Amino acid sequence: MQQRDIFPRSLQYLVAIAEYGSYTRAAEALHVSQPTLSQQIKQLEESLQSPLLDRSGRSVQLTNAGEIYLRHARRAWGELDGGARAIHDVQNLSRGSLRLGWTPITDYLTCSLLESFNGLYPGININTLDMPQDDIEVSVAESRIDVGIVFSKPFSSTTRPNEIETEVLFEEKLCIAVGKNHPRAKQRERMSAQNLGQESLALLNTDFALRRHVDDYCNEYDIEPRFAIESNSLSAIISLIKHRPHATILPRSIVKQQGLHAINLSPEMQRKEITLIYRKNGYKSPATIAFSELAHLWAKNELQHTAQTQ
Amino acid sequence: MQQRDIFPRSLQYLVAIAEYGSYTRAAEALHVSQPTLSQQIKQLEESLQSPLLDRSGRSVQLTNAGEIYLRHARRAWGELDGGARAIHDVQNLSRGSLRLGWTPITDYLTCSLLESFNGLYPGININTLDMPQDDIEVSVAESRIDVGIVFSKPFSSTTRPNEIETEVLFEEKLCIAVGKNHPRAKQRERMSAQNLGQESLALLNTDFALRRHVDDYCNEYDIEPRFAIESNSLSAIISLIKHRPHATILPRSIVKQQGLHAINLSPEMQRKEITLIYRKNGYKSPATIAFSELAHLWAKNELQHTAQTQ
DNA sequence: GTTGTTGCATAGTCAAATCCTATAGGTCTG
DNA sequence: CAGACCTATAGGATTTGACTATGCAACAAC
Asked: Where in chain B are the domains?
């Protein structure tokens, strides 16, 4: 209905006149006066430099040119109409797209969220980009992605605070993770910071916030960590941990989920937050809003579940 | 260029803004003021009940809905543009259609005209309808066909004279036609009206003007014609004449063209005219005009040719 | 943090396009 | 040939579209 107002009046008139075979009849149907149609068709014919209607007979008929032009006009109308319906699809979440940035850590932590989102809104095209947190923040600030999922203190140092808007989902404790064959695979008591310095570590490289966080901790307690492996691939690290006698540091829920053994540190590392970040005051697409809502629901469930098993 | 005026301004603006990523830049390119764009886009968004552009950042970007709608708008624009070009094709005669009505007689007489027309304008769709002359006149009057080719006195009795417009192409003499095996296949002298009454005739049925013309002639000279065959198919009659000892009455050029033997009548039958008929004051499509022009040229050639062989 | 710059939004005015009523000028019908 | 029907034209009212001037927010530089 609204669409009728975007599509040019003159073409709507042409279509109606062709349909009714009469200016008078079409004018009645369109609730406009007959001279309006005369005038509009005249202008249209002048624009196209060709007569479109043959008014010589008892009933108005399309000329050769009119017949051909009408087909195109109908298709064009159909396109605009389809466009309006497609917009409603976007608002219904039956179409659309979501560009999501996350880190290797949040990837592991929230992929079940993404699975439910896809299950709920299968028409929405999801585009995920795995990258260091700093890049996520820049991408969000520059609107290259709709939303980021980060794992850190609310603001990173490199980004001006008010370019970004944050929503905390939940908090995670960091602990040491070892495989089932590691000497400490049975250890239940906490491990001291000093002992951490003895371990052979597999960690993400310094591009990643988690790694920098570990480095800060080591500095604070004057530990010189021993790195067996540095990588930007968390799956590589986890796979390594499972089979070799190395340790790494991960959020507790990833450790559990991957069937690794968790050892708490003493003193504990600063807890970190799983946070959604958006461009401050930026446009949020329907898909982005839906994702955000689902994420909060999912986080609440996740917390309950973690509380039970922790 | 003209097309830019038919396609809605608001959508042209949307396309330009999306292209330049800026209202200001687009306004410069379109030679309008920037507030005009703000206003138009606002209205467009209100019509569609959805934001289309995200103006929160440094550069204007399409929202999810805007991106989708833009695709449709571009296609619609393309359609209208294509329509305008198609109209020019019609005027160029590289497209279009021609609905032609003719009788079995004019079919035989003018099919070479149709062949040249098709050769000259291969893009024009030709639709021919073979029917009795009276039907042609009605069809022309009611614009069901663009042009008729008839073979008769200018006006038939059943149609009001001023509904139809005529253009005579050339005149034809009617004569008796017999096959090569007919007893009179060698006769060079004229045949009297009385002798015609002796012949076994194959003629079109009374739906056709030629047949009624023959009946009138017979009435005038008090002849009771003997009909062996009556048909609405001229090709059937010609085929029959070729192999059986019947006679028929045909325009002289058809007789020659079909390799039949022509015998003149005495007194001669009224000559008849090959005539183009149009709806009076009706719209003539470019194809119709072109056909008319070609027909007159063709008739001039045909006359010269006939003069040589007659 | 303050200031300057850039860019879109808003307000108010004006011209032009659109639509209306009334009427003229055509066909077609009886 | 008169009446009915239909489209075209003319002239006035309304709406739309575009402009200028200005406001406000974001970004950049000092």
From this structure: 3-92, 97-171+273-309, 174-270
Mean pLDDT of A36-63: 86
pLDDT for position B134: 82
Chain A interface includes B51 (CB < 8 A): yes
**Rounded mean pLDDT of A220-238?**
89
Are A64 and B11 a contacting pair at CB < 8 A?
A: no
Residues of chain B short of pLDDT 70, as ranges, are 1-4, 153-162, 305-310
Number of CB pairs < 8 Å for A and B? 148
Q: Give the separation between CA B261 and CA B248, rounded to whole angstroms.
A: 11
Asked if the Cβ–Cβ distance from B76 to A73 is below 8 Å, we say: no
The CATH architecture one would assign to domain B174-270 is: 3-Layer(aba) Sandwich (3.40)
Residue A74 above 50 pLDDT? yes
**Chain B residues whose beta carbon lies within 8 Å of the beta carbon of residue A123:** none
A42 touches strand D (CB under 7 A): yes
pLDDT at B123: 87
Across A204-230, average pLDDT: 89
Measured distance CA(B146)–CA(B96) in Å, rounded: 12
Cβ within 8 Å of residue A259, ≥6 positions away: A180, A242
Which of the four pLDDT bands, split at 50, 70 and 90, describes residue A160? Answer: very low
For A135, half-sphere exposure in the C-beta direction (CA atoms, 13 angstrom radius) is: 11
**pLDDT > 90 fraction of chain A, expressed in percent and rounded:** 28
Which residues of chain B are within 8 Å of residue A283 when distances are taken between CB atoms?
51, 54, 56, 61, 63
Angle at CA B166, nearest 5°, toward B164 and B172?
Answer: 135
DSSP string, B193-257: HHHHHHSEEEEE-TTSHHHHHHHHHHHHTT---EEEEEES-HHHHHHHHHHSS-EEEEEHHHHHH
> Which CATH number applies to B3-92: 1.10.1040.10, 1.10.10.10, 3.40.50.10190, 3.40.50.1100?
1.10.10.10
Top-level CATH class of B97-171+273-309?
alpha beta
Question: Which of left, alpha, beta for A106 (phi over 0: left; psi -120 to 50: alpha)?
Answer: alpha
Domains A3-92 and A97-171+273-309 share a fold: no
